[in-house]
């Protein structure tokens, strides 16, 4: 019988970068954050905690709250505010996941049936709204207008990025610039805000808050680039993970975008048929994978991710060396190496 | 040729309560609020202002922002903050309308095709998220944590009310208490917050802020009760307005709830078939209207509205008499008399 090894452990064993040092350093705070998350998703209206728990308790790495806790730790912060704001960041993220799954008509997330499948689109939209409102209540309780400005701006930018992505669907003329703007908005803005508030609660100088925002933004871009590559990865498929979601939804992510721009007339006709025309048949995903491979579009997507990863790591250069700084930089490498 | 007279003018001519005195008193501020709304719905992502304008510019009475401006006026406030917060309240309202139309699968609103019909559910969900985020940015710019707490709490309560309503759909066992909790949450919470912030920006004592919150809450309940009655009103139908939306959607509002509780076995079987079973045929709406009429369920819904309206007017008793106070009280009567 084949043993499916957890991807993080596997990389550890091979001596590659791991998220574990960062997770270990924030472990105690993260447990308290998880408790805040569970307490604050409560509502008299039973469907709200039921549905929210399905997604929030299903796990995932809690990467965004971990970044808030890690950034606060890097800035020497020892109080309680970072935990509440980490919960707030996770609520914003969860609200966008609920709405994304409705918008993308997704059936599965992390191998589980999505909330929209189990409880319907209607409940997913409304519970998303609730979690989003709850995140603002948590911010208001924190009481810092600076934090409120950072996170409310991030929320608006996320929504703009999602609309932009929707408008680019099926458009093979999407440029790399436009794609980058989408992922910078829909993904990297929350990574940036999650890290920046760590410096703000610690009352550190603007240069450090800016450095952490830059770290988060570039890490977020690298993370999304790798995610978009993984959606076409034969290795992922061999690990039993679903691939081809973006292809089926007509999302023009970088692997597809590069393959289109580098392709010949015949290949472009194929992309137009399956992506613009939405005319997909059995075997089309395999054809797409072949064309993408022919043009080394996955490797080059990862290569682009490395560029943003390098920027993220350099952004932390102004902080003195420490275990948490190394752990945050390792998190960048982990985000990229998970592609292999 | 028949002339359809604007319902507000018609009532004016008959010497009934009108919204006009309130509108006149806040006219100058409302124009500036409208300008803020137009400016702040802007985004580089073109679909956002296009879709938002469709709903926001389509008119409607701007009742909620008018309440914020009127409440601030009643409290003697003369600064600029109320206009921005009035815009913020309208953004929250518009975001919930966009999501409501998706959840209810509505085709028409105020006689126009809904945004979800014109641009799809996906765009409506995401632009709703944007407007919601934008409302928080406006609040943060205002800079008052008290205002932020009031409006973020209202937002969470609205979302809870919407989920509660969703769970009550098709349930003929819904009690009047449960129905009241839904409308207090989904509608009255924002009316209350809209009024309360008027006192907060004017830095008035808690008693006045509480009085305005109570005025808003009870006005909101009365307003929604009348809305729910109008959805079964033969007069509305004769004016060319669509009726029966709640019936088709299986929403157990007070007219239906009263008719069910007062009905005989045969009538209850009818309600169970059409509402719980969702089995509706031609002629069923007419049957519903007859049963509702037989049990005077519309008149009694309006009678209940009068009760909350009286509470709203009395809540303003602690303020000295003035033109704006009379206008706010007239707005209550107008909200109820529009049923005739």
Notes on the structure:
The structure is a homodimer of 340-residue chains. The two termini of chain A are 23 Å apart. The first copy, chain A, contains 16 helices and 2 strands. Chain A has one domain: Farnesyl Diphosphate Synthase. By secondary structure, chain A is an all-alpha fold. The longest helix of chain A is centred in the middle third of the chain and has 28 residues, at 115-142. Chain A is globular and about 60 Å long. A two-stranded antiparallel ribbon of chain A has the order 1-2.
What is the CATH architecture descriptor of chain A? Orthogonal Bundle
The CA-CA distance between the termini of chain A, in Å, is 23 Å
Instruction: Tell me which protein chains meet in the greatest interface and how many residues each side has.
Output: A-B, 41 and 42 residues
Q: What kind of assembly state do the chains in view correspond to?
A: homodimer
Sequence of secondary-structure elements of chain A? HHHHHEEHHHHHHHHHHH
In the CATH hierarchy, what is the superfamily of chain A?
A: Farnesyl Diphosphate Synthase
